[in-house]
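To whoever picks this up:

The nightly regression suite flagged DUF3786 domain-containing protein as changed. Nothing in the input moved, so I suspect the structure step. Input below, exactly as stored in the fixture:
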Amino acid sequence: MENTLRDETAIEEKRKDKIPYEHYKSLLKDLDPQTVAKNSTCPYDEEGRFFTATLMGTPYKVAYPQGDVTDMDGQDFDNYKLKTMILRYLINAKGIKATGENIAYRDVSGGNIYYPCFEGRCLKRFAFTFNYNLEGLKKAMAILGAEPQSIGDLSWRFEVINNMFMTVILWIGDDEFPPEAQILFDANFPSAFSAEDMAVMGDIFIPALKELSKK
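Regenerated output under the current build:
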């Protein structure tokens, strides 16, 4: 019975996640593909009629004008949050280059409103996921080609999606103190993503890091 309820819950969550995905698919077709490619730095293949967006080191194919997001072999998958984030980036990117300067989440318009969500889904989740898997985290960052930083106990700057960079910082916990984390964004991040997008970014990059840590 418990397994059945869990399965039904997962199916319902995926159904809800698919609704915004279908919405943004419908918006992509109204945009000029060359402009989208220029603003997002996601190459557009004229012959194949698709964009290539690279998220957490993995390339994805986005069909134009349909908006379907698949792997590079054209195979579908059901991570609708990831698909939606890619489409939102293609639609909203404004061609502002990475600055190399970091901003905190609270510096973003709306950051104070969504901070509790950001704290739970990003900061605490990152801290408690990797505090007990430091070697896996180091391996994942090496695979990503992330740049080590000199903040906290461990920290890296990496590209989340084309031209958009984040810096994650971990203070390792022990028997006396719990682990803590901070996440900073390149100053160009709000040009493509809203505070709400950034608050759920943990649903995208943390599972990706976990998968990379297993390789």
